[in-house]
Amino acid sequence: MTITFLDGGMGQELVARAGKATSLWSVQALLDNPEMVTAVHNEYFMVGADVATTNTYSILPDRLEKHGLADQLEKLQNLACQLATEARDLNGKGIVAGSLGPQGFSYQPELSPPADMAAEIYSQICKIQANHVDVFIAETMSSVDQAKGALMGASGFNKPIWLALSVDDRDGTKLRSGEDLKDILPLLNEYKPAAVMINCSAPEAVSIALPLLSEANIPTGGYANGFVEIAKNFNKIGATVDLLKARTDLNPEAYANIADDWIKSGATFIGGCCEVGPAHIAELKRRFG
Q1: Which of 59, 50, 201, 212 is nearest to 140 (CA)?
Q2: What are 277-286's pLDDT values in tens digits?
Q3: Which residues contact 38 (CB under 8 A, 6 or more apart)?
Q4: 121 near 61, Cβ under 8 Å?
Q5: How far is CA 118 from CA 65, 101, 201, in A?
Q6: Residues 6 or more apart from 186 whose CB is under 8 A from it?
Q7: For residues 9 and 53, is the Cβ–Cβ distance under 8 A?
Q8: Does domain 4-288 have CATH number 1.20.1250.20?
Q9: Taking the chain, what is the end-to-end CA distance rounded to the nearest angstrom?
Q10: H-helix or E-strand containing 177?
Q11: What Rg do the C-alpha atoms of the chain give, in angstroms?
Q12: Which range is least confidently modeled, 19-28, 80-89, 147-156, 191-200?
């Protein structure tokens, strides 16, 4: 079985390196220090990642409008994609995955527009990214309708689509919306993404969720976060990530031990999300490469 090694978290890695958290999160680095974004991409490739995920998770109209940056969307999308492709080219190989973050806010699918409206926005973004990326990756999709909007919007560009779903940290059988994870299966059958993954959830929840996706008969994967929990007040645009605390029991070895369960359940994509950094990816590569 061939494993594709994803990269780790971008936003939290940038916050850690910058030494500050702002409400723009990972977009702040594109404005202040794009070289830092390049450095993170390069480091992930150096430790064994096969994929550079573009720093575009938060480059969405609703996020930018709140900060008076709505007119910068295309510029920022292009810049983030170019940084990822340049790192890939320097590495000599690899996949560039165009990140599509959740509209509304992370983990709050009820704030997302309905699928047909969301799809129009994602389609505009994919039109920009399509000039740069190898695959689209819709990340942290927390309800069936939210996932549908992303799949609709990313279709029609002749690019593979990876769908990454976020599940309840205490019950990996449920999406964060409260819907059963298996409710996503008809959507997977309809849109046939190239892979379905579980992301930005507790690693233990990923272990519960992945076997439930096996009957979709498409490649699966996992890339978990390292948060203690998602704070209740981390629930709207403008909230800063310093509201979220990192676990102290999830060093690279412990993370790889849990990822071993994912591989045993059939996962062929593994990596990390928030608070999972280059050292974790290096250990995954060492253990499973």
Answers
A1: 201
A2: 999 999 999 9
A3: 83, 86, 87
A4: yes
A5: 16, 11, 23
A6: none
A7: no
A8: no
A9: 10
A10: none
A11: 17
A12: 19-28
Work out whether strand 195-199 and strand 51-53 pair parallel, antiparallel, or are unpaired. unpaired
Residue of 152, 257, 251, 135 lying closest to 197 (CA atoms): 135
With b for 16 or more beta-carbon neighbours within 10 A and e for fewer, the 197-234 pattern comes to: bbbbbbbebbbbbbbbbeebebbbbbbbbbbbebeeeb
Q: Rounded CA gap, 254 and 166, in Å? A: 21
Look at the pTM and tell me if it is higher than 0.85: yes
Residues 6+ away with beta carbon under 8 Å from 158: none
Question: Which residues does 39 contact at the CB level (< 8 Å), separation at least 6?
Answer: 17
Q: What is the pLDDT of residues 26-67, one digit of tens each?
A: 999 999 999 999 999 999 999 999 999 999 999 999 999 999
Instruction: Kindly write down the DSSP assignment for every residue of 37-100, as one continuous string.
Output: HHHHHHHHHHTT-SEEE-S-TT--HHHHHHTT-GGGHHHHHHHHHHHHHHHHHHHT--EEEEEE
Indicate the SS3 state at residue 243: helix
